Amino acid sequence: MSKFVILLGGIVHVTDRLRQLVAGARVLAADGGIAHAEALGLTPELWLGDFDSTSPELDAQYADVPRSVFPAAKDMTDGELALNEAWRLGATEVILCGAFGGPRTDHTLLHLTMATRYAAEGRKLVLSSGSEEAHPLVAGSHDFDFADGTPFSIVAFTPLQGLFIEGARWPLENMELFFGSSLTVSNAVCGNLHVSLHSGKAILIAAPQVA
């Protein structure tokens, strides 16, 4: 297993769970996401992007970190550039840290959909801000280690067929869920959460620190 953390420019709350999640991983930073490195006790091995979100203070603080500089006029985000680099370096698991919040809602939505796209290709990804986690759901079975009472929602990106939810306050059995449905929003863990899906793509978003 080769675990990578990619530091993104969204919000990060440093929690024990997040520290455990990133422990032992190789680290890449996407532009201004390097601001989270110190609080998490991480040292990036590579800093990528067009550096339009990097302050002079960060530029000086991390002057010794190797950089891969791209033009501002490019055809993908700094986060996707970093993710592609992680795959190139042999990543088998990627944690997108700082994937939510910040000034760019479009980037948050991209991180959620991009992770789900790669999960459908067999890649393993988790998105975290420390206070929230997101896990792509594609066809197959998925087990989670959340504590009892942890709030979670499932948001469908496509129609879902054969959705089962076990170990939840409101379980479901062999449901069809249409795109845009709120049926699976605001559930809570009750036991060992297990989700399985016959077909479709979705994201499970949980708040582990609330439990």
UniProtKB/TrEMBL annotation:
GO molecular function, one term: thiamine diphosphokinase activity
Keyword Protease listed: no
GO process terms (BP): thiamine diphosphate biosynthetic process; thiamine metabolic process
Superkingdom of this protein's organism: Bacteria
Source lineage: Bacteria, Pseudomonadati, Pseudomonadota, Alphaproteobacteria, Hyphomicrobiales
Keyword Transferase: yes
Residues in Thiamin pyrophosphokinase thiamin-binding domain copies: 140-203
Keywords: ATP-binding, Kinase, Nucleotide-binding, Transferase
UniProt-listed SUPFAM superfamilies: Thiamin pyrophosphokinase, catalytic domain, Thiamin pyrophosphokinase, substrate-binding domain
Enzyme Commission number: 2.7.6.2
InterPro entries named among the record's database cross-references: Thi_PPkinase, Thiamin_PyroPKinase_B1-bd, TPK, TPK_B1-bd_sf, TPK_catalytic, TPK_catalytic_sf
Pfam families per UniProt: TPK_B1_binding, TPK_catalytic
Protein name: Thiamine diphosphokinase
